[in-house]
Amino acid sequence: MADAEGRHSIAEFRHGYEEEGRLRGFRSGCGFVTATWGLRCPRCGAADLAEATLSGRGRVAAFTVQNVPSDEFLNEAPYAYVVVDLEEGGRISGWMPSVRRPEELALGAAVRWLPSYKPGVLFEREPPPAERTGA
Ligand SMILES: [Zn+2]
Q1: CA of 99 to the centre of ligand 1 (A)
Q2: 34 C-alpha to center of ligand 1: Å?
Q3: 131 and which of 1, 25, 35, 127 could share a cystine (Cβ 3.0–4.6 Å)?
Q4: What is the pLDDT of residues 29-39, one digit of tens each?
């Protein structure tokens, strides 16, 4: 839900993936999709962004391995902090507890969002192509 001026709050966004099991995004009338809440579409400037549920699939655009985490992630380090380009468009940051060393992840790697009780936007690797196609 947006307020009267079209704003979406970070609390609503977190509620989506933490309690509703879905990753919220916003779709503009021009077709642009973003995972980042905002007042207006960054492409066409329209203010009437409609909520959209994103698949959570994407590719790693950037990452780093955190060895000295914030308090909330103290028991999880080391883990990868990732920036993911989502399939539908838009970019979102998250983390991957399954990655503990830089050699274990590559730029462009296929990942998917993993609904979880853990804080933050959690990602895991997509299964390799052989697992998906049965080939
Ligand atoms: Zn637009």
Answers
A1: 35
A2: 10
A3: 127
A4: 999 888 877 78
